[in-house]
User: What shape does this take?
Amino acid sequence: MLIESRSPDMPSTPGVALRQWCAGDLDELVQAYRDPVLRRWTRTPVTTAAEARRWLDGTVRDWADGRRYTFAVVEERADGARLVGNVVLKGVTPQRPAPEVGYWTASWARGRGVAPRAVTALSRWAFDRFPEVARLDLLHQVDNVASCRVAQKCGFVFQEVLPARPPFPLDGHRHALHA
Assistant: This one.
């Protein structure tokens, strides 16, 4: 079942909906971050309720400053909506040539197409919301094969290999999607 967005400016796509994070997501956020695979690819640890509150508060501040938009990805289940991932649009500033799309998928939702659907919805929303944005970038470390597949499924075209930079020890890929 499609989860309808509560606000007309929130993106959605069949099977998942994107919405702003809220305090009620705290427990599921901590549960998602228990996954070592997720922690491997993310920079900010969320292992306690206090860290989750700081993370959630940060998403509110980011929305307020207008340069970073983080969405909870949820899907409807028989027992109600469940968190299945996160997507973010980073660096929406005149100084940056292309904002970056980032995402993660909770371990219990992997392998079901959640990430491609959420990234596609976020990309459509970004181009609609920010008509001055002509390109989105999706970056990932070279050994993150799953992220490479997500980029390709969403129409992001491989552009270049980027040199390693902290906190990531290996080179990366930059994929781009044009409006």
Notes: The beta strands are 12-13, 16-20, 68-77, 80-90, 100-105, 135-141, 157-162, 172-178. The chain has five helices and eight strands.
